[in-house]
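Collaboration report, partner site 2.

Our partner group contributed sequences for two proteins of shared interest, and the home lab folded both. The records are reproduced in the order in which they were received, starting with the first partner submission.
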Amino acid sequence: MNDNTDLKTAAAYIRVSTDSQTELSPDSQIKVVRQFAKQHGYIIPKEFIFRDDGISGRTAEKRPQFNQMIATAKQTPSPFSAVLLWKFSRFARNQEESIFYKSMLRKNGVEVISISEPMVDGAFGTLIERIIEWSDEYYSIRLSGEVKRGMTEKVERGGAVSIPSFGYIIEDKKYIVNPETAPIVQKIFNDYLNGIGSRTIAMQLNEMGIKTTRGGKWENRTVDYILQNPVYIGKIRWNPKRRTRRNYDDPDIMIVDGQHEAIIDTETFNRVQNIIAQNRKRHIAYAHYNIADEYMLHGLVKCSNCGATLTAAVRGKSLQCSKYTHGKCSKSHSILISRMNEMVITGIEQAFSTGVFNLTVRDKSRPDSNIDLKSMIDRENLKLRRIKEAFEDGVYTLEEYKESKALIGAQIERLASSLSSSLCNENEERHKLIERNKNVVEQLRSDKLSEAEKHDIICGFIDKIIFNRESSNIELFFYA
């Protein structure tokens, strides 16, 4: 057993391509990976063993467990610090994807480790990796030009060159109407013609449990994209020079007759385009009312339902949850800016009067100033449960289990001591914060200061504000 006092959590990725290949079986891979983990101070919980059996490593798209592992690792913070493999070829055989996903994991503090192919540390290993990346980039640039030329020629013939839009599937490289989702496309167009806005349509689709083509939630812009996509009248839209990025007026866009069946008739499509154009003109007419960044609470107020920022609505007199505006949040948090200002100023006044408020200490000189000690203690307790499971599964011997349990217990005691000290320091910081800002309520109520000046003042001690529309309450989070 490794004598490392800081047991780390790792994931294991297991893959075999076919049963006939002369490689370690999945069970054998798990066994050797677990042995490596024990020797190097890692814990591998059952839920972090990701296994794709009988699947090629050529692309990540067709490996569901690989994609699940990447999605889990992208959490903040990542629940594991390393991905352990039998060989790097288990991770990917496609060099471009290998570099891409390793870089993505590394940015979130997760290393990819081959237990049978240790990499060279230091500058030489880094240099080799950079050469591979450069070579891959050069190859991709050349390949991209050739692929784009081929795709353009295919578009000119009305062929499919991208993943099918919602309402279609692809068979034999052709778009085929999906009988399950095509009626939803027709409903979107009909609802819009009947005066239902894109945001409301998106919310209704989310409430019905309907997912987008990529499996996500609907937004108003997702609905808008469908409403403006000529694929639904049997056309193919393609820009051979650049990504369109919803700039449908780009003069380089090609629109040609496709080889697929239409879902929407041309008359309905054109009527929708006319309504969209009218709505766009109306929106531009009111745009000058929006006060943009010029309000005291800019960027500070958060939705209690989804956590998104409340932003200034059209005409600039109220705030609304930005995700609700786009159809991704189910609850409106609309409130007049003047009303929110008064609630916040009154809340600050009460907090400073009682000395009771949420406080985060950002003192860089203190080693625990930006550390969530309670969460760290919770994570160590989780480790205790996991090593117990490992002992019960026969991965750890009784002696190894006792040793690991003692190490984690000692770490919990150290963290608890730091937490107690931190709470004492927080009380001191509260008194200092109140003293530094004893005149702030008067400043925030003053007519002599601009909204931008008040914003600078309040950002000096307020981290965020949670607004609950149902209870009409706010929760203030201070920092020192």
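Second partner submission, folded after the first:
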Amino acid sequence: MNERLSHEVFVKKAIVSLIKEGFKGIHTVYSGFNEAFKKYFGGENPVEVTNRLAQEGKIVIRPVKGGVMLYLPEESPGGRNADEALKIMGLK
């Protein structure tokens, strides 16, 4: 019997597998990720899970038109995270 993937493994596998050529991440709606997640995990909410994984630093989320893009941390587009910004501002 096949063992279920964890949320983290599923999301990272989706990012790597569903990526379109020339892109570094996947759009949660247009890639089919949200529906695949719900089907695989019996209706669980992909937004809650991906937000938690982002807070843990396991993926990066960037808002875009019509949803969000999911990236592996090492593939995320430029831009500072909150910790970097606070450090540069001398507040951390």
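Feedback sent to the partner group on the second submission included the following. The helical segments are 7-18, 33-40, 46-55, 82-88. The chain is about 40% helix and 15% strand.
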